[in-house]
């Protein structure tokens, strides 16, 4: 049996590896249009800042490594057509510009996502970049070396924008973030986004909120300024467009493979598309939100790996299931960890829940133990039955631990009462005697009890 | 109503505070035989090492702080008798040596635990210490100042012994640990205890295993050497007896309050003893192991706080429940975090489970992200249904996070399959793309699937 994987970054690389382990007898081919496969796109902001000192480090596996496992990797090959009836694809070799038709028995779509780039005046000027893949990284590195920018404008205050703001700070590039929404971090509740807002200002990042990109000014083909929708002109020798991504679904759509309500490829829990024998995984396809049951699009590296594993196993004849996501996400900007899992209070309301919530300060060690670091924790539960709905943590120290505990609590469909009685690990170097999570769950639980 | 609390360190202090919040109208009195209440016994090793630079820092609240909340604290008062029929106690004022009889409506026993000290020759010599409470700390500080010890022997390789080995290393005191068992950390599976063993040796701690304390030699009333059961003589100017603790239950026992099979006070999930109106919390009472359902004695500070909260609320007329424990514990020795939750593989077998397990290396960041730290993770599940039974983590980095995720998974009665599909927070500074927990759960799950 021949399994063809389109795309080899995260989901595709994982799917191929898993398919190989599931059955050593199949022929497995990865087609990848870039020059690299199996790299960590999430590591790119840290290559730009220099925190990761060698860009080769974010490349996890080479085509030769796959070859050793009996997986053929064809880089700089773009799949330009899928014929789902004949079960074959048309592949263009980007080096020779020749097309080849290749038959498949099972197909795995791992075509990823790409940045949204508005078709505005000046968008093609030199110095206007996106940061999504390793090809973008090369452009960044070239530009940084060639012009040593001093003034950057980042369009979009999402996680890529905020990670890059830190990277640019490290490089002594003065940075302004332009964001169309009136606040940063729209997936977070306002009171949790505020300390991040303040922290950016403390680190000399300028924020221009409620304003969008109108056009770009240039000189000699190179960008010189951003003009916003409100008419402000911001001088810039580096502009990053980071207003979001959209799934790469054109190939699938033209082939008649069904898309879901989010615009990404629809899949079942086996990661199979509505076209039998064709699977999808990673940023090109949907997930299910395990709290609301609604389709959700979560283009994140870890989800891509989890989905790739399932798609690969099933393409090889297995029967694995991916049950969906809780919307967990985390990133770092300057000294702050910014993390979320489950539903925000606002989304909980929009989803028909009647949420209660608590925001409290927490710390990662006993109060008397030196070097402790603090964070703000928001915990959200359903008033009806006390079931936990989500959490947000902003700060330092064990912020990531807090989110993972709640993410696991969501997995177990736990209530405030359950979590209030969690048996978490305590010793002064690792936690206050009662974890902030236990304290927060206890406060919510006593609110519920009083309501009864 | 008058609520009397016997003991005011962790469980007692918490119970009193909770009882006060639950009902502001009761009279609440704490009797405490030491000169301090409300301190963190878990912080004491770090006061000795100097990591905590001021011993007052481990005292959380003063009697005056309780007084402000309307809780009367009588320090240096020892309760010497409980009359459960007349509902009164006999209290000795240790300063005046006078006894008083005081009536109660509700009684909370928070009498804690004390170190096991064998009645051997030389045990009362100066320089022979235990470390359990703040009175012990004062003795330690006096001794350290007076004689500046150069050679210590710690009897017992439990967590207090291993924490103190680190403290002594900080103080340049050469240390030998004598342990009767043939290995350290008997609650951990052997392969997980081994790296801790090796780490102690690397830090110049000598280990003498399979040998016990026979007697102590002295000169002029001061200890000079330890003689082991095998006849070895170890020179020592400081000896710490840390072979374990036992619950302080004599007062309860004489009063006819029932003890459980572990030897600690039996309580129901409301933390009420078998004598109605009398509650118990903390190191003097039992818990239930939530996996096996068996009584278990877990004398730990966080459990004391959780139990105290429930005992206090119920003494004030509430109806809170403490559902039990999973056996979670953590401590630090030198650079290693040593943590466990749930059942070890050995205990799982003894409890009638048919366990499967995986031991794997994990790390706390993406492989290319600088400063990452590693640990060894053991995950244990039931072969029958894949339900998680426990985990052990030894190492650095996010070892504590790993244990808390598993502790929460145990709370949700999750299986390997569930955990393999956890939506944990990933970004390169915080985790590999797939958490070591997801990888470990996946390996166990595939073992189970192959068995089907």
Query: How would you describe the oligomerization state of the chains in this entry?
Result: homodimer
Mean pLDDT over the residues of chain A: 97
Low-confidence stretches of chain A: none
Number of domains of chain A: 3
Cα radius of gyration of chain A in angstroms: 23 Å
Largest interface comes to:
A-B, 69 and 69 residues
Q: Structural class, judged by helices and strands of chain A?
A: alpha/beta
**Terminal-residue CA separation of chain A:** 61 Å
What's the CATH architecture name of the largest domain in chain A?
3-Layer(bba) Sandwich
The level-1 CATH class of the largest domain in chain A: Alpha Beta
CATH topology call of the largest domain in chain A: FAD/NAD(P)-binding domain
Shape of chain A: globular
Strand order of the largest sheet of chain A: 3-2-1-7-18
Main attributes?
five-stranded parallel β-sheet, 28% strand, FAD/NAD(P)-binding domain, Enolase-like, domain 1, alpha/beta, 3 domains, 452 residues, 25 strands, homodimer
Question: Which secondary structure elements does this structure contain, and how are they paired or packed?
Answer:
The structure is a homodimer of 452-residue chains.
Chain A: E1 2-6, H1 11-22, E2 27-32, H2 44-49, H3 63-68, E3 71-75, E4 77-83, E5 88-93, E6 98-103, E7 106-109, E8 113-115, E9 128-129, H4 134-147, E10 151-155, H5 159-170, E11 174-179, H6 190-202, E12 206-209, E13 213-219, E14 222-228, E15 233-235, E16 238-241, E17 245-247, H7 250-254, E18 278-280, E19 287-288, E20 295-296, H8 301-315, E21 329-333, E22 336-342, H9 345-350, E23 355-363, E24 374-382, E25 388-395, H10 399-411, H11 416-420, H12 436-451
Parallel strand pairs in A: 1-2, 1-7, 2-3, 7-18, 9-16, 10-11, 10-16, 11-12
Antiparallel strand pairs in A: 4-5, 5-6, 8-17, 13-14, 14-15, 19-20, 21-22, 22-25, 23-24, 24-25
Helix pairs in contact in A: 1-8
């Amino acid at each position: 049996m021949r399994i063809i994987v389109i795309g080899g970054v995260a989901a595709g690389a994982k799917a191929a590896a898993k398919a190989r382990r599931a059955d050593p007898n199949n022929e497995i081919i990865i087609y990848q249009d870039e020059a690299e496969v199996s790299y960590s796109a999430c590591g790119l902001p840290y290559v730009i800042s220099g925190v990761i000192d060698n860009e080769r480090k974010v490349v996890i596996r080479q085509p030769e490594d796959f070859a050793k496992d009996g997986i053929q990797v064809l880089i700089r090959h773009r799949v330009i057509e899928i014929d789902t009836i004949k079960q074959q694809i048309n592949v263009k070799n980007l080096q020779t510009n020749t097309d080849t038709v290749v038959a498949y028995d099972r197909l795995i779509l791992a075509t990823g996502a790409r940045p949204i780039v508005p078709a505005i005046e000046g968008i093609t000027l030199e110095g206007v970049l996106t940061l999504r893949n390793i090809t973008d990284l090369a452009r960044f590195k070239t530009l940084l070396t060639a012009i040593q920018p001093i003034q950057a404008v980042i369009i979009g205050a999402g996680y890529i924008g905020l990670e890059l703001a830190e990277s640019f700070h490290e490089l002594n590039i003065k940075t302004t973030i332009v964001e169309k929404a009136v606040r940063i971090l729209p997936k977070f509740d306002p009171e949790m986004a505020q300390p991040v807002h303040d922290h950016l200002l403390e680190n000399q990042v300028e924020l221009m909120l409620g304003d969008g990109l109108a056009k770009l000014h240039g000189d000699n083909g190179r960008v010189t300024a951003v003009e916003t929708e409100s008419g402000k002109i911001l001088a810039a020798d580096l502009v990053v467009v980071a207003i979001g991504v959209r799934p790469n679904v054109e190939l699938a759509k033209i082939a008649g493979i069904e898309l879901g309500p989010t615009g990404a490829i629809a899949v079942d829990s086996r990661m199979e598309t509505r076209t039998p024998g064709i699977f999808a995984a990673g940023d090109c396809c949907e997930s299910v939100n395990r709290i609301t049951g609604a389709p959700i699009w979560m283009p994140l590296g870890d989800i891509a790996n989890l989905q790739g594993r399932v798609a690969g196993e099933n393409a090889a004849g297995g029967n694995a299931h991916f049950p969906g996501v809780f919307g967990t996400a985390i990133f770092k900007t300057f000294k702050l960890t910014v993390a979320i899992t489950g539903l925000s209070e606002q989304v909980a309301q929009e989803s028909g829940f009647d949420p209660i919530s608590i925001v409290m300060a927490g710390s990662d060690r006993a109060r008397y133990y030196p070097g402790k670091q603090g964070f703000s924790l928001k915990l959200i539960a359903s008033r009806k039955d006390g079931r936990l709905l989500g959490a947000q943590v902003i700060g330092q120290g064990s912020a990531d631990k807090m989110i993972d505990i709640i993410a696991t609590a969501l997995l177990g469909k736990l209530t405030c009462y359950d979590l209030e009685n969690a048996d978490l690990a305590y010793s002064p170097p690792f936690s206050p005697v009662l974890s902030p999570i236990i304290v927060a769950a206890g406060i919510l639980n006593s609110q519920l009890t009083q309501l009864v």
